[in-house]
Sequence to fold (117 residues):
Amino acid sequence: MDIIYFRNYCLAKKGVIEETPFDVNTLCFKVGGKIFAIIDIELFESVNLKCDPERSVFLREQYDHIIAGYHMNKKHWNTVLFNRSVSDKLILELVDHSYELVFQSLQKKVQLELANP
Fold:
């Protein structure tokens, strides 16, 4: 997977915007003002994704290249390394999971506004 494909995949989701709030190399994908994915634009070696805490533990036990979120709350975030033992298909499933967790945490009014622009 390359950065263009990953970026387009994230931006195709309802209500998603991209920002670089931390520095010029750290790209964040947000829905309703909340981050669901973070990548390094220059290196594109990994992605930080929100994850259900129980699923996080399971994934870290199953895959050497899914680790506790770098610079993130270790209970709720994973860092997934690209081009390793984790398939592109699983990475995209985890992007979907992260997006859904964040979307579902939004107020119902915001969810409706994003779903019906």
